[in-house]
Amino acid sequence: MTHHQLGATQALVVANPAPTGVALRWLQVTGLVLLVLAMALPLNAQDRPVSFADLAERVSPAVVNITTSTTVATQLNRNPPGAPDGAPFEDFFNDFFNRDGQSQPRPRQSQALGSGFVISADGYIVTNNHVIEGADEIEVELFTGERYDAVLVGTDPATDIALLKVESAEDMVFVPFGDSEIARVGDWVLAVGNPLGQGFSVSAGIISARGRALQGNYDDFIQTDAAINRGNSGGPLFNMDGQVVGVNTAILSPNGGSIGIGFAMSSHVVERVIFQLREFGETRRGWLGVRIQDVTDDVADSLSLANASGALVTEVMEGPSREAGMMSGDVITRFDGGNVDDTRDLVRRVADAGVGREVEVVVYRDGTEETLFVTLGLRDDDSLASSSNSGTQPQTSSVILGLELTELTDQMRDDMGLDGSLSGVLVRGVEPGSDAEAKGLRAGDVITEAGQEPLTTVAELQERLDAAREAGRRTLLLMVRSGGDPRFVALSIE
């Protein structure tokens, strides 16, 4: 398991809200189970407080229970209860219960529970998107027992955050957001919510880790050992000052129960999302218009970079970056005044920068740094269409760097659904155990550049390889298109 990501052997599952009337029922899947959990944030106390009672009393009035109702279709059972298919008198019961001879779905009401918290006197409430997703009706219950019908203002599935609104004749008790960026591992936190439908429940723990990424591009989770269970989804994680530093979202567990590994989306992310949902009813994230990949040690060596950091541009699409002069092969090292660590860091920075804003972007190109000024566009999450990897088998080929290669022909482009102007060499096969295999190259890939220069023939690739060896390089940087998506791969030439 890396610092930011969970291992592949662990199943990550977002828990559904707790169904009403099933207080002790756990969501179970093959492997590990991820339940919607409360996430805790840091406190300033070095010693465990004698009691959390004062804090709990202060913040609980702003925490709410959420009940959703959804109309779902159910299939009529053609046999009496307990009778299997093929039972005697099956046709009789089918005709009796379903006189038109067809099993018709019958609507029923499904209810689920979750948590949330009030963030303003005029009744704005934050919860998880999965708590209210698809709901026909949303009811909010206050700590005092008052109930209100809630209206959905907007959602952001990318961060699993939703914003609700209720109308109250009086100002509502609310809680402020705190700064999750200053939270420290080891700080005390308090989770409040509606676990398993039990109503306003409090649990305490510490911040176990920060900066966790589970599934999304914009993830910034706080990990906590505060007990969180099904129904806590959408509830707040408080620091010792009574400020919300996280929104309880998920847990990692082998059995569906809390084992002390819970995750809450950081307030640093949530506040930005909520602001946009209030203003626009949706999130509006900045867009550079590039495809990027992380800079690995071998890629850094190929480019003569001192450090394996930044974001390597693999493709520049029509849009802001192309207009500003960015090129494939550039390494984005700084964005809007701050250093870029990796692709995840850049994606978050761009998203937060604001649509229509001009930002300074520093790129490393051909051994020197260049400064570009990019006016950010509006991010569209629709992906580019991918192409097929199948095609006509070429008749002749050469083997270089563990790759069986041949020139790309017009017929191959047609067969593979590639752009007619695309130049490069086609990978027919990859030698087992080669560096190329280890780096993920496969038959059907197209190599379009070598040494950051366009490639049209196998002979040109051999020339670039010879030149790199003469220059004393240990790797050769290739641009590879797999299913239409470009990426850079640095292959060992030693």
Account of the 3D structure:
- The protein has 494 residues and is an alpha+beta fold.
- It folds into three domains: 255 residues, Thrombin, subunit H (Beta Barrel); 93 residues, PDZ domain (Pdz3 Domain, Roll), CATH 2.30.42.10; 95 residues, PDZ domain (Pdz3 Domain).
- Helices cover 16% and strands 35% of the residues.
- It has ten helices and 30 strands.
- Strands 1, 3, 4, 5, 6, 7, 8 and 9 form an eight-stranded antiparallel beta sheet that branches. Strands 24, 25, 26, 27, 28, 29 and 30 form a seven-stranded antiparallel beta sheet that branches. A six-stranded antiparallel beta barrel has the order 10-11-12-15-14-13.
- A hairpin with a 2-residue loop joins strand 21 and strand 22.
- The N terminus is likely disordered.
CATH class categorisation of the largest domain: Mainly Beta
Tally of helical segments: 10
Mean pLDDT: 79
Total domain units: 3
CATH architecture of the largest domain: Beta Barrel
The gyration radius over C-alpha positions equals 28 Å
Q: N-to-C terminal Cα separation, in Å?
A: 31 Å
Report the count of strand segments.
30
Report the structural category.
alpha+beta
Query: Roughly what fraction of the amino acids lie in strands?
Result: 25-35%
